[in-house]
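Database export, one record per block. Field names are fixed; values are copied verbatim from the stored entry.
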Amino acid sequence: MPKNCPECETPLDFEEDEVEEGDIVACDECGTEFEVVGTDPIELAHVEGDEYDEDDDEFLDEEEEEE
């Protein structure tokens, strides 16, 4: 049975027996990304925004140099 997107209820397009924990699946309709956190049964967790942002690091480096 296909898993539905928790955001828009559209069926997610992936084979449940072909994903592993840590894989990322995305909803074709709304683009929301989910991480597979369990496989029996399939459990998905919403992927938050990027945890690492190079622009922020560069900005911090410039501030540190000014001190």
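Remark 1: Confidence is low (pLDDT under 50) at residues 51-57, 62-67.
Remark 2: Residues 36 and 44 are 5 Å apart (CA to CA).
End of record.
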